[in-house]
Amino acid sequence: MAKGTIRYWAAAKAAAGTGEEPYDAETLAEAMAAAAARHGRGGEFRRVVGRSSFLVDGDPVGARPHASVALPEDGVVEVLPPFAGG
Length: 86
Hints:
Structural class: alpha+beta
Order of helices and strands: EHEHHEEE
Number of helices: 3
CATH class: Alpha Beta
Radius of gyration: 12 Å
Strand content: 25-35%
Shape: globular
Oligomer: single chain
């Protein structure tokens, strides 16, 4: 298992109730499933994260299946919800 940090931004931060937390997972899918189990809160966390985009050590995940995205040791996962604005 790799250990690193998940950073939440904007609505993801509000839904998680924290700006960051550690991960202990092999893949992005595993890390986010563990986070969802911690932050159930009536589905708000899952809803926000389900619409979010992700960076792993600054690289966009894009449309890749999260189960195929390996997480590095001491890596950083950024959870970026859709932003509104003009």
